[in-house]
Amino acid sequence: MRLAGRVLLSMFCAAISVTAATPLRAQAPCEQIRTACKNAGFVQGGPVGERLVLDCFNPLVLGEMPPKRASRPLPQITPQLAAACKERTLARQSPDENAQLAPQASPLIAREGGRTVYDARLKVTWLADANLAAKQTFGVPNINQSGSMNYATAVRWVAAMNAYDGGAGYLGHHNWQLPTAPDSDRTCKLTGRHGESFGFNCSGSALGSLYYASLGLREPDSAVPSSQNRVGLFQNFQPYLYWSKSAAADPKQGFVSFSFSTGFQGANVFRNYLYVLPMIKGKLPGTPPASGSHLQANPGGTTIYDPITQVTWLADANLPARQTFGLAEINRDGAMDHETAVRWIEAMNQSDGGRGYLGHTDWDLPETGPPDPGCSMKGTTGLGCTSSAMGSLFYRQLGLRPGDSVIAPSEARVGPFYNVQPYLYWACAGQSASSACQPNGPDEGFEWNFSLGNGFQGTNLVGNALYVMVYYPDNSAGQPAP
Predict the structure, then answer these.
(1) What is the pTM of this model?
(2) I want to staple 170 with a disulfide (CB 3.0 to 4.6 A). Which of 22, 161, 313, 448 is the partner?
């Protein structure tokens, strides 16, 4: 929903004096607003609720609703100043200026009643619904209830979008496509075995540009706040990837990971940021004997025994978000790289003067185990891997199916987008945002993906289940139609 400047200000602005800090006089309108946001405590790339662009500038200038979890009141500015900045922002859409658009002037402009978003930086129009497939399949099978799908299904789904309504296409557009990612991107931190660029800060791809430049996010922050929830006897499960202690079959692929967003077991390089669910082998001494095969909460409810795998789980599936045990490398949402995960477990066992967390010194990361014939792919990879500790928990104890998410899909708004998932999204090979998707990915059986859960760009097995965002390029000489 878009609100007029006066209504928005009356609803969300607090009486904050910004003139006592940085002077605003003689600054351009947009810079005045940016300075006012800074003086009010908003920070470029800051935590949710305190982000300069998403939580202050965009609501003031573009009329976007501030997030429910906004932790700071907006500064007071005049409607005339907001209008002047907005006019300047819209005017800065000439081809020569798009690439140099100032970060404080948001290039994301809601159109078609908020159903699409024009991206002046990339010269493409995004679909505002970041998970349309969860409710509109266009008759394409094999889309999970959450909206995730494998790559081949994603290609068919986009084709069905373009063929919709007798060929007119969804919302009257028949050139929707997956976001592109170039094979070589100097903004990335890492390079793969075939020379492909990956890692954090990859702003050369379409999704990377959206995450880092247009939305003003920074790695390894999630576009969506971490979830606080209850899943059976557990709490705070994140619909994302979790580390195991098992090395991947190919050492270059890092360590085995498990997705509680889709039930997919795969591998991730150790530099990536995932979550941690600690466990102890066996049943804790002094706890009641197990009865049956279902999950059983131990006294106090802080640990849970799984009779099937004979391990004891920590009931808090994201303890690091509130208990770092002194490690500064843990992200504020609880995610961390694998090396930090190992050190966090060690610190967990050494806490409380050496008595260990909750009085136990044998906490560990889960193990994967031998090859699993139930996996949809070779060895320990794919959906349906029930032999690993986390796989058994997901499928046998929580009763989830391949493609299910441990919690309901996100309906979060991020800037002008909605239903944004804090997970991985499919992308395709292409040298620019307006390039068509190339038929071949970065490696056989792999395609590009980008994480809105932490800003990491990488490649993924085409059989994995990821989410889909789409756009259509603006190939006209003039400005896009409103």
Answers:
(1) 0.79
(2) 161
Listed residue (438, 439, 440, 406) closest to 423, CA to CA:
406
Q: How many angstroms separate the most distant Cα atoms in the chain? A: 74
What confidence score (pLDDT) does residue 21 get? 41
Half-sphere exposure of residue 425, counting CA atoms within 13 Å on the CB side?
29
Beta bridge partners of residue 449, listed in sequence order: 426, 458
Instruction: Give the C-alpha separation, 181 to 184, whole Å.
Output: 9
Instruction: Say if residue 238's pLDDT is above 60.
Output: yes
Q: What is the pLDDT of residue 88?
A: 65
If you average pLDDT over residues 37-52, what whole number do you get?
Answer: 79
Half-sphere exposure of 72 (CA within 13 A, CB side): 24
Taking residues 20-39, report their average pLDDT.
71
> pLDDT tens-digit profile of 108-157?
999 999 999 999 999 999 999 999 999 999 999 999 999 999 999 999 99
The listed range with the strongest mean pLDDT (43-47, 74-78, 380-384, 440-444) is 380-384
Q: Which amino acid appears at position 340 of this protein? A: T
Distance CA(72)–CA(478), nearest Å, equals: 39
Cα–Cα distance between 401 and 437 in angstroms, integer? 31
User: Residues with Cβ < 8 Å from 81, sequence gap 6 or more?
Assistant: 29, 32, 33
385/439 Cα distance (integer angstroms): 30
Q: Which residue has the tokens 């199916």?
A: 401
Coil/strand/helix, residue 54: helix
Would you report the helix, strand and coil content of the chain in percent, each value rounded to 5? Answer: 25, 20, 55
Q: Residue 238 corresponds to which amino acid?
A: Q
